[in-house]
Automatic annotation (TrEMBL):
This is Cytochrome c class I. GO terms for molecular function: electron transfer activity; heme binding; metal ion binding. The keyword Metal-binding applies. Residues 70-173 form the Cytochrome c domain. Residues 184-233 have a biased composition (Low complexity). Keywords: Electron transport, Heme, Iron, Metal-binding, Transport. The keyword Nucleus does not apply. It comes from the Bacteria. Residues 180-233 are annotated as: Disordered.
Amino acid sequence: MSDLTFNKIAGGVLLTGLVIFGLREASDIVFKKTEVEKAGYEIAVQEESAEGGAAAADTPPDWNAVLTPANVAAGQAVSAKCAACHKLDASNANSTGPGLWDVVGRKPAGHPGFNYSGAMKDFAGKQPIWDYDALYTFLKAPGKDVPGTNMTFVGLKKPEDRIALIAYLHSLGSTLPVPPPRPAAAAAPAAEGAPAADAAAPGAPGGTTAPAAGAAAAPAAPAAGGNTAPPKA
Ligand code: HEC
């Protein structure tokens, strides 16, 4: 074999190698390898929706006002998203997730016989019971509220879905009392009105308007009676 032939063959082999290598690199660029972060599959029921603005003002509602039969009914429909992993009936059996009968008012990680994650057990250290507010926050983004939880559910973005669902969960054998009506709504105007009321009380205007109204109403009634009386007679 002449040197030239050898060079040609060697060059060919080298070129082939370079082409193969180049193609592999190129395919790595084209088809990005993604690491599988979590084993198993994720049931992502609720998609992220474009309501970033609402997120900032996502405070729990006045539970006294929203635990209504209408919300219980609406919440039952929402609970279909939970039923893939949770039993919601009175058997309270565990499945992928713990039974959710009587979960409202229950201690987090407190269902007997369920193998909770360390994250959920830790959470129980700072959250003594699943009260309305705690569920409201948890169900929005379980993985954010309890980082490391085994509940691979993306969450319910819409406040009305969570409110309805919590009303439904509360109807499932929960003994947690319904909170009293929130005074906040009534207190805000009252706080503003308070000084005015104090000022009016000692002053004359407050006292005079009441009798004045009464006085005005009093003559009006007989007058009306007097007017109607003649046609009758
Ligand atoms: C993909 C399965 C899955 C879905 C869907 C799911 N969960 Fe869970 N859930 C779990 C698992 C697993 C746990 C236990 C979490 C842990 O130990 O970290 C859990 C825990 C919980 C807990 C805490 C219970 C306790 O005893 O402390 C509540 C409350 C809860 N889920 C409510 C819901 C609701 C309401 C829905 C529907 C909106 C839902 N989950 C949807 C799997 C799921």
